[in-house]
Amino acid sequence: MSVSIAGRADWLADKHLQRLLAALAEGGEEARVAGGAVRNTLMGQPVADVDIATTCLPEEIIRRAETEGFKPVPTGIEHGTVTVVAGGKPYEITTLRADVETDGRRAKVSFGRDWKLDAERRDFTINALYADADGSVVDLVGGIADIEVRRLRFIGDAEARIREDYLRILRFFRFFAWYGEGRPDAEGLKACARLKDGLAQLSAERVWSELKKLLSAPDPSRALLWMRQAGVLTAALPESEKWGIDAIHGLTKAEKDLGWAADPMLRLEAIVPPDAARMKTLAERLRFSTAESDRLRYWAISTTVEPKTTEGELAKRLYRGDRQGVVDRLRLSLAGARVRAVEDNNALLEAGGFSRLLAFALKWEKPVFPLKGADLTALGATPGPKLGEILKNLETEWIEAGFAPDRGALLERAAKALEA
After folding, report:
1. Do 16 and 145 have their domain in common?
2. For the chain, what is the domain count?
3. What is the pTM of this model?
4. What distance in Å separates the CA atoms of residue 39 and residue 47, rounded to the nearest whole number?
């Protein structure tokens, strides 16, 4: 069966891409678009990156790109990969390869000219599709049939593919979350369960990168369920074991209904306990960025906001704490209340309260305390601990008064405090 993506792949018509493909195909060589761009076009999904596979060797890729006036960057030349910037867009170009040796984390490769061997070294059938410059799709592993039924399947023997790189266990569930339907492929699922201990060989950065991509899927709940069933979720994220993933479905529904963007950090918070010590360990183990670590910590130390809390009371909490942590708590509480509201009228009222508070928190702007230490020294105060204590007490009074006292009123209070 002949399949083409011509006419539904605007990106393929790009003149710079066509020039690049033509240059790489001169003199008996071949070049095709490979992987995700072909897959996503066939599945009607957006295409972010366009990768190219070619029979040209890396040095020849560089020479031909420069001849065309494009900018080559040897981003992974030892593995056959050169990034070429053409028309302002980067294209990752890789010479056809076959694995010579693998250790579960990385592979030694040899360059070749056999498209079938190159396809068979990839992970899943839907990721091993190629497209010629005219849009004709080349399928050497049965990927088109799997796309038609949205089935995620390892190429060849699932265990063999996983032993080449144990990250493929997490990729199996990540791609299932994004592209799969129904039940995961049985052989793939069994292989992931049997070889899950291999995840311990992977770097923390690779594990978190895959988990974050999985948690960014439109609805990762089914994938997380199968990960838990296979024991993979506990192996990758032990903090989730006794806490559960039940809140994920309600959260993704709330995101869809209320127009929230898919947020991998919020989804992570939905499946781990709000325990500051354990979250610190999690962040260190998976080597979170500073921003990610701080967000997880502030969420963990933020106390639950009751739905009957007034805006004034919430404003005091927001001033004293971290707004993102409070917002995360409110979003998760609202999502949970929406689920319970189906059978519980009280939960419906709670959802209304959380919705009101969330709207307030999102638009709230932190007020600036009107006084500084210099204001007190101008009144005759001596710099030191006593001045700091007076300033702190005045700020507390200002907060408790709903941030209402202005600078003049606070200066009067400061003068009386100094006299006392």
Report:
1. yes
2. 3
3. 0.89
4. 9
